[in-house]
C-alpha cells in the first residue's frame, strides 16, 4: 500500500542527502519521481545536500497545490511513480493534507523530509500536521552532534555567534554561516536551554572571570 512517510531530524542530520539517495535508488530501477522543495539553501527549484549534491525540483511556494499539480501532470500523460517533498516543515498544514490525498487518491508513495521543531523548540505547523497524518514517522539515525559532543536534539538560530530566541519562525539560513550573519547551530537540550552556542562556550572558556561551576 502507498504510504506517507515523514523523515524527521535536526538540521545537519542528512535529511536532504537521504532524499537524494531515495531518488537515485528508485530512478535506477526505472521509476520516475516528482521532487518538490521549499526555500532550499541552494535557491528556488533546487534540492541540495550539504555534501554538495543537488538536483532540480519544483518549488512548492505558499499557496501551491500538490494534488492539483500532480493531477494535471498525470492527466497530460505525464508519469509519476512517487513523490519526494523536502523542507516539508515550511509547508502549510493544508499542503500536508494535499500530500496525504496524493497517497490515498492517486496511490503514490510520498516521502516528506523536514525538521520537526524550530529554533524556539516549537513544532513547525507543517511538521505537526505530518506527525498527525503520516503512516510512518522515521527519525533519522545519522546523529548530528552538539559542540560538546553530545547528540544534538535542538535547532538554534544565531546572530554573531549568540543564540536568538525571538523572531519570525522561518528565516532561511545554514549551519555554516559566518558569525556576523544569521545562522543555525544544532545543540543538545542542555546547551539549548542555557543558550550556550559554540562561540559562547569558547568565549566562556577564555574568560578568567568564569567560575568552573555547573549550575
Strand order of the largest sheet: 5-2-6-7-1-8
The global form is elongated
How many extended strands?
A: 11
Could you state the order of secondary-structure elements as H and E?
A: EHEEEEHEHEHEEEEHH
Overall mean confidence score, pLDDT = 86
Low-pLDDT sequence parts? none
Structural class: alpha/beta
Share in helix: 25-40%
Major sheet size, sense and barrel closure: 6 strands, parallel
Structure description:
By secondary structure, this protein is an alpha/beta fold. Helix content is 28%, strand content 23%. It contains 6 helices and 11 strands. Strand 6, helix 3 (93-106) and strand 7 form a beta-alpha-beta unit. The N and C termini lie far apart (52 Å). The mean pLDDT is 86.
Summarize the structure.
This is Thymidine kinase. Belongs to the thymidine kinase family. The protein is of the alpha/beta class and 215 residues long.
Topology:
Layout: E1 4-9, H1 15-27, E2 33-37, E3 46-48, E4 54-56, E5 58-59, H2 66-75, E6 82-85, H3 93-106, E7 109-115, H4 125-133, E8 136-139, E9 154-159, E10 162-164, E11 182-187, H5 189-193, H6 198-206
Parallel strand pairs: 1-7, 1-8, 2-5, 2-6, 6-7
Antiparallel strand pairs: 3-4, 9-10, 9-11
Helix pairs in contact: 2-3, 3-4
Enzyme class: transferase
Catalytic activity: thymidine + ATP = dTMP + ADP + H(+)
Protein name: Thymidine kinase
Amino acid at each position: 500500500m502507498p504510504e506517507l512517510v515523514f523523515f524527521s531530524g535536526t538540521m545537519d542530520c542528512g535529511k536532504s542527502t537521504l532524499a537524494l539517495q531515495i531518488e537515485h535508488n528508485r530512478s535506477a530501477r526505472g521509476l520516475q519521481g516528482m521532487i518538490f522543495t521549499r526555500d532550499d539553501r541552494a535557491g528556488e527549484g533546487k534540492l541540495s545536500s550539504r555534501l554538495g549534491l543537488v538536483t532540480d525540483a519544483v518549488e512548492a511556494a505558499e499557496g501551491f497545490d500538490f494534488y492539483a499539480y500532480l493531477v494535471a501532470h498525470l492527466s497530460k500523460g505525464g508519469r509519476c511513480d512517487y513523490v519526494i517533498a523536502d523542507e516539508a516543515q515550511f509547508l502549510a498544514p493544508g499542503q500536508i493534507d494535499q500530500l496525504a490525498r496524493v497517497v490515498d487518491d492517486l496511490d503514490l508513495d510520498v516521502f516528506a523530509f523536514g525538521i520537526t521543531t524550530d529554533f524556539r523548540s516549537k513544532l513547525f505547523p507543517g511538521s505537526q500536521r505530518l506527525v498527525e497524518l503520516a503512516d510512518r514517522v522515521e527519525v533519522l539515525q545519522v546523529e548530528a552532534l552538539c559542540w560538546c559532543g553530545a547528540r544534538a536534539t535542538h535547532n538554534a538560530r544565531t546572530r554573531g555567534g549568540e543564540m536568538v530566541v525571538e523572531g519570525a519562525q522561518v528565516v532561511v539560513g545554514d549551519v555554516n554561516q559566518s558569525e556576523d550573519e544569521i545562522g543555525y547551530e544544532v545543540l543538545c537540550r542542555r546547551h539549548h536551554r542555557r543558550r550556550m552556542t559554540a562561540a559562547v562556550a569558547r568565549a566562556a572558556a577564555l574568560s578568567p572571570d568564569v567560575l568552573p561551576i555547573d549550575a
